[in-house]
Amino acid sequence: MNLHIFQNQQELNEAGAGIITSLVQMQPKAVLGLATGGTPVGIYEELVKAYNKGRVSFKGVTTFNLDEYVGLPADHSESYRTYMQQHLFNHIDLPAAQAHIPNGNAVDLEAECAHYNELLEEAKQIDLQILGLGHNGHIGFNEPDDSLVSGTHRVELKEETREANARYFNTIDEVPTHALTMGVGTILKAKTILLIVRGADKAEIVHRALTGPITTEIPATLLQTHPHLVVLLDAEAGRLFE
Ligand SMILES: N[C@@H]1[C@@H](O)[C@H](O)[C@@H](COP(=O)(O)O)O[C@@H]1O
């Protein structure tokens, strides 16, 4: 594991974006696994800046998002599709056909998951998977459970996850109860994983995830088994590693 702790958010954002731009410069056809949530926003901002300065092009890149809510129209302000458009896709030259996000509005969600898995198979391997961390140790929307699923699947969100994400909705009742998520098998198959964690409220869970016993009750503990894990923490989240 390659762990870095940053004293300010800007340095963390630049480091995260730097890892992604270096990869794409070296490998213009790179396959990127993308995350949503508050954590990667600053990194996407830096990527857009690098693109605007002509340092990187995403024309040949393929992306796969980790997850999407079930039942929100794609153009809903809180769908992950909208998030990606607003924070990244609208501002760079990534061709729309190369940007994949599970369709949480598909009539047949099982078929949608199978289709997403096929696309991932065709892409062979994600070169760099960006990950945030849920307060309960979830990655993507792989929630704590007594077993975990390898491929893309439908999940019921834990109450604590709905509560954590309620800040983006008017009321908690509007937060979807289910989501589609890439499975932990797909995540762990990525060549490199870039885990980003910020904030004092995640200090304990990130410490347990990276140093505690491996358990499906904290899905992020499985990251300990990955041979190329890069971790970027802000000082608050990294408190217990100092
Ligand atoms: N499904 C997403 C995850 O992909 C994200 O990494 C995590 C943390 O979110 P945030 O970065 O907003 O704290 O929870 C969300 O529910």
UniProtKB/TrEMBL annotation:
What general EC class does the enzyme of this chain belong to? hydrolase
Q: What is its EC number?
A: 3.5.99.6
Q: Which residues form the Glucosamine/galactosamine-6-phosphate isomerase domain?
A: 12-226
Task: Offer an example of a GO molecular function term for this protein.
Answer: glucosamine-6-phosphate deaminase activity
In terms of domain of life, where is this protein from?
Answer: Bacteria
Show the coiled coil region(s).
Answer: none
Q: What InterPro entries would the database entry show?
A: Glc/Gal-6P_isomerase, Glucosamine6P_isomerase, NagB/RpiA_transferase-like
Q: Which UniProt keywords apply?
A: Carbohydrate metabolism, Hydrolase
Q: Which residues form the active site?
A: 67 (proton acceptor), 136 (for ring-opening step), 138 (proton acceptor), 143 (for ring-opening step)
* Pfam families cross-referenced by the UniProt entry: Glucosamine_iso (PF01182)
Give the family, as the similarity comment puts it.
Belongs to the glucosamine/galactosamine-6-phosphate isomerase family. NagB subfamily.
Q: Its biological function?
A: Catalyzes the reversible isomerization-deamination of glucosamine 6-phosphate (GlcN6P) to form fructose 6-phosphate (Fru6P) and ammonium ion.
Q: How is this protein named in the record?
A: Glucosamine-6-phosphate deaminase
Upper classification of the organism: Bacteria, Bacillati, Bacillota, Bacilli, Bacillales
